[in-house]
Amino acid sequence: MVTLRTELEFIKSYALLKIRFENKFNLQLDLDESVLDTCKIAPLTLQLLVENAVKHNRMSAQEPLLVRVYKENDYLVVQNRLQRRASPETSTGTGLDNIINRYALLTDKPVWAGEQGDLFVVRVPLI
Questions:
Q1: Is residue 32 within 8 Å of 87, Cβ to Cβ?
Q2: What's the CA gap between 40 and 1, in Å, rounded?
Q3: pLDDT tens-place string over residues 69-117
Q4: In 3D, which of 96, 66, 95 has the Cα closest to residue 83?
């Protein structure tokens, strides 16, 4: 387990995606400073979820991909608008399954992932 602060520091350095994709990608972190050292998650959870969003969605300067991360109750929520690629990448579902299985070992609170309207949303329990 790592604190949210540690995971966010890693994901901010990983946000080189923003440099690579210039104005086509944005990572919006809406987290209160007060939860960064008190809440924990499994390492690399955010990296896998951001990679998943980039893999499955198109992005352009006209329609940038926005990945939003925020806390809701006892969950870390990662969401992005569905902007499906015209030619979807082949998906094995391994990344999301890996997250679900890791959290099943850490807590009895489930990970939830799915579509809500025009959003793809993942809710990860905070520990």
A1: no
A2: 6
A3: 999 999 999 999 999 888 766 666 688 999 999 999 999 999 999 999 9
A4: 66
Residue whose pair of structure tokens reads 């944005």 in the numeric block? 26
pLDDT exceeds 70 at position 60 = yes
Q: Indicate the residue type of 7.
A: E
Helix/strand/coil (H/E/C) assignment for every residue in the chain: CEEHHHHHHHHHHHCHHHHHCHHHEEEEEECCHHHCCCCEECCCHHHHHHHHHHHHECCCCCCCEEEEEEEECCEEEEEEECCECCCCCCCCCHHHHHHHHHHHHHCCCCCEEEEECCEEEEEEECC
* pTM exceeds 0.85 for this model: yes
For the chain, list the domains and their CATH numbers.
2-125 (3.30.565.10)
Report how far residue 127's alpha carbon sits from residue 109's, in angstroms, rounded to the nearest whole number: 9
Contact indicator for 68, 78 with CB cutoff of 8 Å: yes
Give dist(CA 77, CA 121) in Å, integer.
7
pLDDT in tens, 10-24: 887 765 666 677 788
